[in-house]
């Protein structure tokens, strides 16, 4: 393995490209954790739970057929476009804090995107299977390329580029969902003085997607640096 990748090149590329991105990702994760903890302690003045807010916004936007389910975990909230189900973690589902209603509203934003045919969401859903395949198998193809033929290296890089594109396309999808969430919350769901708190919570969440994109890009640059010696 050391002979194939070049010991110094393999590790120096990690420090140059990947380490800074990982450090930023660590900061982003700490930021969302602290923000979630902070705003979980501040009750929404409406007193509505995350599930109630989600149901209200869904119905208001003609999405009566979208179900709301509770899912295990912390910040495991997501919208499933295939099943037309909004899944909320226990604290978000039952909680009435700023954090709970903000996260629930954000996920409803994805459901509204789906209804509106928001192109970046459609593109992301289209790329997703290829991106998952590429990110899981890229190093297998790279190793095959070093052993057999550069063709496998090129194939691995092409698949990983799809994974990077997935992360890039995710950014406008998530930012737009947060904007939609704030627009809905401003319509009397939470008080005006709490809108800034909800926005702060959603910005912290968005930072994690920026970090994931930077990590993916840094991994691609590292991959290109390593494989450039072989091709």
Automatic annotation (TrEMBL):
Keyword presence, Mitochondrion: no
Signal sequence residues: none
InterPro entries: Zn_peptidase_2
Membrane-spanning ranges: 12-30, 137-169, 206-225
Keywords tagged on the record: Membrane, Transmembrane, Transmembrane helix
Name of the molecule in the record: Zinc metallopeptidase
UniProt source species: Soehngenia longivitae
Taxon lineage: Bacteria, Bacillati, Bacillota, Tissierellia, Tissierellales
């Amino acid at each position: 393995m050391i002979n194939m990748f070049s010991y110094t090149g393999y590790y120096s590329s990690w420090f140059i490209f990947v380490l800074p991105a990982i450090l930023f990702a660590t900061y982003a994760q700490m930021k969302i954790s602290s923000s979630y903890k902070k705003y979980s302690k501040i009750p929404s003045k409406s007193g509505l739970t995350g599930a109630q807010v989600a149901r209200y916004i869904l119905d208001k936007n003609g999405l009566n057929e979208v179900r709301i389910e509770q899912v295990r975990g912390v910040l495991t909230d997501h919208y499933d476009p295939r099943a037309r189900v909004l899944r909320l973690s226990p604290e978000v589902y039952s909680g009435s804090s700023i954090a709970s209603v903000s996260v629930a509203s954000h996920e409803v934003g994805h459901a509204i995107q789906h209804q509106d045919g928001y192109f970046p969401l459609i593109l992301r859903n289209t790329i997703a299977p290829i991106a998952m395949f590429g990110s899981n198998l890229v190093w297998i193809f790279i190793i095959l390329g070093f052993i057999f033929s550069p063709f496998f290296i090129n194939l691995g890089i092409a698949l990983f580029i799809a994974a990077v594109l997935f992360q890039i396309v995710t950014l406008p999808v998530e930012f737009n969902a947060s904007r939609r969430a704030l627009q809905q919350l401003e319509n009397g769901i939470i008080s005006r003085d709490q809108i800034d708190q909800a926005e702060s919570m959603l910005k912290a969440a968005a930072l994690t997607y920026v970090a994931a994109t930077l990590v993916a890009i840094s991994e691609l640059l590292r991959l290109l640096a390593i494989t450039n010696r072989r091709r």
